[in-house]
Design a protein that fits this description.
CATH superfamily: NAD(P)-binding Rossmann-like Domain
Distance between the termini: 28 Å
Order of helices and strands: EHEHEHEHEHHHE
CATH topology: Rossmann fold
Largest sheet: 6 strands, parallel
Oligomer: single chain
Number of strands: 6
Structural class: alpha/beta
Strand order of the largest sheet: 2-1-3-4-5-6
């Protein structure tokens, strides 16, 4: 893909570590100019901060909405979930996706070309392994948002697709989650994955590479589970 994508500009959110870093690195290796953003760069849950960031970047050809996560939360029964806890997870995952997409859409429309890839989770197609209600809901929301945006933006040469990630040891939260399972729980999780291994950040980046390529120009509104055959959708 290197070469004919060398004139493209990408923004990848959530690049502090793990999956976001791997996506940004892979796109750069393909000759794409990549702007990385994480919570230390801009608060992507705040409209003004998002608009200021994209105004500085300029027009964007490729947007990868990877920012999100559980924002340090663990499972609590639904009756114990505060408004603030719910809102924090929804904002980090779904609102950030909306705000960033809204920021890049006008430029993509003007140029008649764009690629948007939303990084969701198996939790959005099934249940959250950690039991975090807002996380499962926000990740399902990203999938619905993907379909709606594909329908709206396709006539402008813009594709919008989604990846539902399986279990990837990619950041402190997932490492902590993995360690909490203990040896028996870890073995059970791997046994439920068809290829019998955990995911790597590069596995997700490979999916992004396809969705942003010219070869995927007739693919839009789709959610692919990259999870080693855990969900088998």
């Amino acid at each position: 893909m290197a070469g004919h994508m060398s004139d493209k500009v990408a923004v990848v959110t959530g690049t502090a570590h793990g999956i976001g870093t791997a996506i940004a690195d892979m796109l750069e290796a393909d000759g794409i100019r990549v702007h990385r953003v994480d919570k230390d760069t801009a608060d992507l849950t705040v409209s003004a901060a998002v608009n200021a960031f994209f105004a500085e970047v300029g027009e964007v050809d490729i947007l990868v909405n990877n920012a999100g996560g559980v924002v340090g939360q663990v499972h609590h029964p639904i009756e114990e979930i505060t408004d603030e806890a719910w809102s924090a997870v929804v904002a980090a995952n779904l609102t950030s996706t909306f705000l960033c997409t809204r920021a890049v859409a006008p430029g993509m429309k003007r140029r008649g070309w764009g690629r948007i890839v939303n990084i969701s989770s198996g939790a959005g197609r099934s249940v959250s392994l950690t039991g975090i209600q807002a996380y499962a809901s926000a990740k399902a929301g990203q999938i619905g948002f993907t379909r709606q945006m594909a329908h709206e933006l396709g006539r402008y040469g813009i594709t919008v697709n989604c990846i539902a990630c399986g279990f990837v040891l990619s950041n402190p939260s997932t490492i902590k989650q993995w360690e909490s399972y203990g040896e028996q729980g870890q073995a059970a999780l791997v046994e439920g994955i068809a290829v019998r291994r955990l995911g790597k950040s590069e596995d997700i980046a490979n999916g992004v590479r396809f969705f942003v390529s010219e070869e995927s120009s007739w693919v839009t509104g789709q959610t692919i589970s990259i999870d080693g055959g855990h969900a088998l959708f």
